[in-house]
Amino acid sequence: MPNPIAFEIGPVAVRWYGILISMAILIGTILVLKQAERLKLDQDKILNLIIIVLPAAFIGARAWYVIFSWGYYSVNPEQILQIWHGGLAIHGGLFGGVLAGYFYSRAVGFNFWQLADIFAPSLILGQAIGRWGNYFNQEAYGYETNLPWAMFIDGAYRHPTFLYESLWNLGVFAFLIWWRRKKNLVIGEIFLAYAVLYSVGRVIIESFRTDSLMFGPLRTAQVISILVIIVGMSMIILWRKKAPAVQETLSKSKRKSKR
Question: In the chain, what are the domain boundaries?
């Protein structure tokens, strides 16, 4: 069984969960800044965006998890802020971060969907790295199985669903990096592809998990993911039909952001 604590400095315990999330943020930030430089966008404004989006994403991720686990936290309110034990819901983090990014982009004159495209590969790579925090915390695992790659978790050999999702996310990351090099992509298409592809994997992998957040009899992540797939695919199809108008909007946004 892995030790969730990487090392200790006096009374302070440094956990693998925090180390991995920090690594994900650092690597993601580097990738975002490189892409922003390539597109000749103001990197100071991009850094400001990251500073705003990160806390919003953490608040959203924790709030989402607490809300859908309220039966537990209502009797253990002292644990609501103890995120080092895990309990960050990706969907909540995305909603919080996207909302903050939308308002910031409006304030500084950036095109929101262009920013979303820039951040998409970093988001999915960060999720791939962060899932290994679940391994060290021994959470987000699946049902018992005798498959050769089963991991011994919580007293039994189980589906390592955190591994499944990490590998899926790495595949999506590689696809997005390759795909964004293609010409004539509609603005927002990279982000929407990220949202759709991640959701497809989440729908499948979530069915193996034993600790899913529930909304009544339904798995919350599967319901949200199916909705994202439907909305995302519909938007891609619609925007491709209106591509010239969308590209004109992007051109105006670029000119405005350079002023």
Answer: 5-257
